[in-house]
Amino acid sequence: MIQTDSDPNPRRAVRAFPDLQALSQAAAEEIVLVANASVAERGVFSIALAGGNTPRGTYELLATRHRDDLDWSRPIVVFGDERFVPPDDPRSNYRMAREALLDRVPIPPERVYPVATDVPSVHEAADRYDRVLRETLGEPGVAAAGTHSHSASATVDVALLGVGPDGHTASLFPGAPTLRERTRWAVSVNAPSHIQPAVPRISTTLEFLDRARVVIFLVAGADKRVVIGEILGGGEAARRYPAALVAPRGRAIWMIDQSAMPDGRSNA
Ligand code: 6PG
Questions:
Q1: The pTM is what?
Q2: Domain ranges within the chain, ordered by starting residue
Q3: What's the mean pLDDT in 84-90?
Q4: Neighbours of 160 (CB within 10 A)
């Protein structure tokens, strides 16, 4: 791990790594730590998985090297976002997570909550997932979607997130009206024109992500360097990036491959 300058934000830890393999190993270790602590404290561990490519290595390590380091009957798995495609589509985040992790560990299928995309519209998919998240993670009797929930309870123990080259996270894109949503936990997103895959999405909201106990950003790729540099700099300009707007009440851990570090910091 590369030590980075002490970060001005005490609840934000920034850990830079020499390569994606080291980042994935550290991420898997952190997830195991939080999972076992959550189970010890509350008997359950809930995690929102990220899509895209970067998390794949972490998922594979959880399914192999760390397979026996946690009790797979305890996790509840939801998704931070999903593309509005069939579950077996190569672009499906659920398919990637299934192949890299979920089909390789003894987690009871009923504890995995993919976004149902076999519905007539992405809006219907988002409405349903908003309900699924509240029923699965929310407090009993938490207000239904559409009314402001006053529950201060956490949503998930861990929310894994990636960052796009435009600073998006989950499927919250720069300037999108979904960034202002502070009641729903899941929303529908029109197909982005500038980011692949250009398909409609279902995304969790900042309201959902900010109430995670721990948010872990997994970031790799030189195409993120400019955005990461601005976000780590903490200036007001960075707030145009949705990833910079995630402000969990708990901890935020930025796990960044050196290829995405602003000055490509060398190994410690
Ligand atoms: C998605 C992801 C998205 C992803 C970023 C980074 O559905 O595409 O949720 O937010 O995390 O685009 O993707 P990479 O990890 O592939 O760079």
A1: 0.93
A2: 10-257
A3: 98
A4: 27
